[in-house]
Amino acid sequence: MNSVQGTTNIPMLGKVRTAGALCAVGGAGWLVTGLLSSAISRPQSVAYALMQVPWIIVQVLLLVGVVGLAFSGAASGWLGGIALGIALLGRVVFVLAEIHSSILVDDSILQPLGALITAVGMTLVGIAVLRTRLWGGWQRFTPLLVGVYPFLLMFPFVIVTGEPNILAIAGWGLPWFLLGYAIWTSVAAERPSRVS
Questions:
Q1: 62 within 8 A of 27, measured Cβ to Cβ
Q2: What is the per-residue pLDDT for 156?
């Protein structure tokens, strides 16, 4: 049974829906902040230090989104539990990475680690969501899209060039936006049937 089912969990539905909206805002913020960061040519500058504030906010919003996804029940079972734990760890590492970067005024070694842990976790979450079949339509593919995006579009740049590509990194915001919207719409669609 979905963890947000039943009329006794109406307040939980609202929290999950809010988490989805915040995740969507975080995804859009990731895209915009990434594009703005591409204009900053070098770390150890005032502009770089200032960009850490929106990055920290974005990372927290995406962390809230993963928490909302966990409470939605879309990735239930043992695989979902393990996968969500890994994804949450990745998001926490990302928040710490941005705080670390703001202190260093330089890139943190934790950033690629956070990306890798998040990508692995969200790929497994995506598989769990597909297995549980609690979400239908395009929504059920969004967690998997968040997970595989770095493997398809971010990590290959690092492997080939030895440097991250900020535009590819910025693009990761789009799947996060879609995931947030999927969480929001899935809960919104469930609410009328659960109250009747």
A1: yes
A2: 95
Burial of 160 from C-beta contacts in 10 A (0-12 / 13-18 / 19+) = exposed
What one-letter code names the amino acid at 186? S
Reading the block at residue 183, the tokens are 């969480």
Q: Within 13 Å and on the Cβ side, how many CA atoms surround 148?
A: 8
d(CA 131, CA 144): 12
Count of alpha carbons within 13 angstroms of residue 118, beta-carbon side: 28
**pLDDT averaged over every residue in the chain:** 87
Model confidence over 35-64: pLDDT tens digits? 988 887 566 677 777 888 999 999 999 999
Residues of the chain with pLDDT under 70: 1-10, 41-44, 188-196
